[in-house]
Amino acid sequence: MEANTRSTGRLPAAFLTPGSSSFMDFLSEHQPEMLPGKRQLPPTQGVIEAPHGTTIVATTFPGGVVLAGDRRATMGNVIAQRDIEKVFPADEYSAVGIAGTAGLAVEMVKLFQLELEHFEKVEGAQLSLEGKANRLSTMIRSNLGMAMQGLAVVPLFAGFDVDREKGRIFSYDVTGGRSEEQGFAATGSGSIFARGAMKKLFRDDLTEAEATTLVVQALYDAADDDSATGGPDVARRIYPIVTVITEDGFRRLGDDESSEIARSILERRLEQPDGPRAALL
Amino acid sequence: MSTPFYVSPQQAMADRAEYARKGIARGRSLVVLQYADGIVFVGENPSRALHKFSEIYDRIGFAAAGKYNEYENLRIGGVRYADLRGYTYDRDDVTARGLANVYAQTLGTIFSSAAEKPYEVELVVAEVGETPEGDQIYRLPHDGSIVDEHGSVAVGGNAELISNYLDQRHQDGMSLAEALKLAVQALSRESNGTQREIPAERLEVAVLDRTRPQSRKFKRIVGRQLGRLLEAGGAATEAESSENGEDSEESGASEE
Q1: What is this structure's pTM?
Q2: How do residues A178-228 score in pLDDT, each as one tens digit?
Q3: Do residues A35 and B126 touch, judged by C-beta distance below 8 A?
């Protein structure tokens, strides 16, 4: 009964041992080397160069939540990738957007998705939204060693809370500290500018269409002032990824929908480069 | 020093098989059928929480008859196997064939090892394909053998009777309602040739539906949707019965 999952023989004993419903717990007992947090990093001097993803924004509206991200990954002052995806469905009712070291972030999302799905299959029930948010906290905490070497991952987690029947947003810091955000939130290098834009545009009574427009406006403003954030790329037809989560579940806007939002914003910005203005009083 | 009794290997295996079969026969049977848009699992199960059918992976479902704690253990082992494999390689590299092989090895090793009690379970592993031709259904009896099935399969104590009934009536391209109706008819047959009524709330129904937009195709059918399907299936059979003769159910019973 060797614990060798690669052979096509019988299930190893670890697989048939009653235990936790968590895939990460199973993995840490069975094949710990496969967990990103368990990896040993050689001591390095200075910051490791790896592509970084930048700005993720989210906003709630009555009936759901919108999570969106730009498409640029940078390595120093070089644009490493123009069409990177940083916003992913976590499960049917939640999504996660990740700023920080792209490679680690994508791996973390994959493991997080699997963690939620595994729990659901084993238990026959979904984790609560709070439970999912806490699980993500644990994962970020396990990455702290790498974060100290400059390979930080900072996610934004948004979902529809089926019990409370509303959209909720959770933001994190590199140590795994979690806080629930009211209304809107942003993470990544362009987040300061995005948050400023959202602060002026956000209202409690936005419709879904207004909320999706709001996040693209915010990303535009982030790209305007932060060189690491990419704006809508009309020439290459690369538009921000916008996702909406309501009681009907997760939905990613199609390219035609997001291009329409981006193009209408661009058109207005040709007349008014600084974007919509809030009333003074 | 006492000499242990000699038991021939044939006898030992026969005894173990007999033991496992008896254990499996104590539970209710269940059926797995192909229909036009996928694969449907139907069984009688008074419990809402302890399932006989469940999701293993995107396109793979699991059904089991026999001892609950034993097949639950195998189910979780299968979920771990599938998730780990998908995590290590890719989601497409998790297949029903691979899973069925692992189950067969596991059951086979346990069955032929004298130190372990044979599992009193019979499993079905099914994978829904892009087209009905791509569907795969594997039946795994308690001894670790593996049978590649087509169209319909029944496992459990009454399996032989039920699969005979299904073999005669199952057709390719049935609608979900028709397949469900056929499954319920098959399950409600008793070994003495009589029929009994299985109320909808005692039915556990799940599908692997290839038309689902999500990558996870497994879905439970409960409550109102189940009621609607059962009604639709009933109506369809009645409409058909004007052509095929009213006695489709009775003729099935009288054949025994």
Answers
A1: 0.89
A2: 999 999 999 999 999 999 999 999 999 999 999 999 999 999 999 999 999
A3: no
Give tens-digit pLDDT for A215-231: 999 999 999 999 999 99
Instruction: Report the alpha-carbon distance of residue B208 to residue A30 in Å, rounded.
Output: 30
Q: What share of chain A is helix, strand, coil (3-state, %, to 5)?
A: 35, 25, 40
ipTM of the complex: 0.88
A51-271 maps to which CATH number?
A: 3.60.20.10
Mutation to test the A interface, candidates B52, B55, B84, most A Cβ within 10 Å? B84
Q: Is residue A268 classed exposed, middle or buried when 0-12, 13-18 and 19+ CB atoms within 10 A define those classes?
A: middle
Judged by CB atoms closer than 8 Å, whether chains meet at A16 and B77 is answered as yes
Q: How many domains does chain B have?
A: 1
Which CATH number is B211's domain given? 3.60.20.10
A227-257 per-position pLDDT tens digit? 999 999 999 999 999 999 999 999 999 999 9
Taking the Cβ of residue A121 and every Cβ of chain B, the question of whether any pair is shorter than 8 Å is answered with yes
CB atoms inside a 10 Å sphere around CB A174: 17
